[in-house]
Design a protein that fits this description.
globular; three-stranded antiparallel beta sheet; 381 residues; 3 strands; single chain; mainly alpha
Length: 381
């Protein structure tokens, strides 16, 4: 299925693409000079990961993703939550690399391996390689799952990631021992119950990269718009359609529309566009929908940054006159760095008991975000 750029009418795209580029650049400048810039970027990682799953027809709650990322799960993680964490980790990995890394040959190869999602394991079956086993919620004497602190776990160690790495290593060793590999033959075929064997991802990826080469002389925002629409139309990867949206954000970063660690949260903007426009049969309608999604992402980012700046100012006023030994400044930093915090996360970071953590949270006046009596989480107003 060829994607022909010659049939695209650029006249209707110029204005929305220009507006999106200007607003994204303004947001990037504001983040670079802001005292809440680092916290804003971290929040955008979480929010964009949840929005990415929403675009693909799945629902992941923000508080569940935050607790899962902090290995403070209050329930067994779902398959959708595991994918959301993959999106979150991929965003962080791209943002931590140089701007051109994601679209390089090495970057694409690495990200394809990272985004290889395995199906949910049925009860009683062996866990396939690459699946991160869910963390078990700790239980305290009062029965509140995430408020307890597991004495057996070392601080700062992600045991789920270690388990996943060991599982991948065991699978790679077993795969290397197979006769086809030992004789230098072709690797074994993928499971037909999971993959469409007629789906040639390598050929589709080469075709998509060809579209990028054709669009390399277009303005950066137009490049990202065309690249995302081509990725969706070509259906490059079977189990990772979300990776194309991160590549589009990487194009903006590589071109300098966004800079540093700022990877535009375009999923948040695309989420506001009706699905019938994003998946319309007419190409021009789809391209306009993506352009408006980019603009919406920038506007949402501006509003969120203003909200965080105001919340930081209000919390700083509560720190006036406090003792030098007060833990409130550390709590303010934690709250600004994470969309939500639980009592267990506060206790681990501030090195206090869960009961003291809840008392400090109430003293700062944070808002309870989950609406539950147990397994509570708080965020800024």
């Amino acid at each position: 299925m060829a994607y022909d750029l010659g049939k695209i009418s650029m006249s209707s795209l110029i204005r929305p693409a220009f507006d999106a580029g200007v607003t994204l650049t303004r947001l990037d400048e504001r983040i670079a000079r802001s005292p809440v810039g680092a916290g804003f970027l971290e929040r955008m990682h979480f929010a964009d990961a949840c929005a990415s799953l929403w675009i693909d027809g799945e629902l992941v709650h923000l508080e569940d993703l935050v607790l899962h990322d902090a290995t403070r799960d209050i329930r067994t993680p779902t398959h959708e939550l595991t994918i959301a964490r993959d999106v979150l980790r991929t965003r962080r990995r791209i943002a931590a690399q140089t701007p051109g890394w994601a679209l390089s040959a090495d970057g694409i190869r690495t990200l394809r391996q990272t985004s290889d999602i395995n199906p949910v394991v049925a009860a009683g079956e062996a866990e396939p390689a690459g699946v991160i086993r869910p963390a078990v919620a700790a239980k305290d004497s009062e029965g509140e799952g995430e408020d307890g602190v597991d004495a057996e776990d070392l601080p700062g160690v992600d045991y789920a990631a270690i388990d996943a790495l060991l599982a991948r290593s065991d699978a790679a060793i077993e795969d290397a021992k197979r006769p086809s590999h030992a004789a230098g033959g072709r690797p074994p075929e993928k499971d037909p119950m999971v993959y469409d064997l007629d789906w040639d991802e390598d050929a589709r990826l080469d075709e998509w990269r060809g579209v990028l080469r054709q669009a390399e002389n277009l303005p950066a925002v137009l490049q990202a718009i065309v690249a995302l629409d081509a990725w969706n139309e070509l259906s490059v990867l079977q189990h990772a359609p979300w990776l194309g949206r991160l590549f589009a954000a990487s194009i903006l970063r590589q071109a300098g529309v966004t800079s540093g660690a700022h990877l535009a949260a375009i999923n948040l903007g695309l989420k506001t566009i009706p699905v019938d426009r994003r998946r319309h049969r007419d190409r021009e309608t789809r391209l306009l929908a993506i352009a408006h999604g980019f603009l919406a992402a920038a506007e949402i980012g501006m509003k969120e940054h203003d909200r965080l700046t105001l919340a930081k100012t209000m919390m700083d006023r509560k720190l006036e006159g406090r003792r030098t030994s007060s833990r409130l400044p550390e709590l303010v930093e934690l709250v600004m760095a994470k969309p939500l915090v639980s009592a267990g996360m506060v206790a681990k970071t501030l090195e206090v008991t869960p009961q003291a953590a809840r008392r400090i949270v109430l003293e700062l006046g944070l808002r309870e975000m989950t609406g539950r009596g147990r397994f509570r989480a708080w965020g800024v107003i």
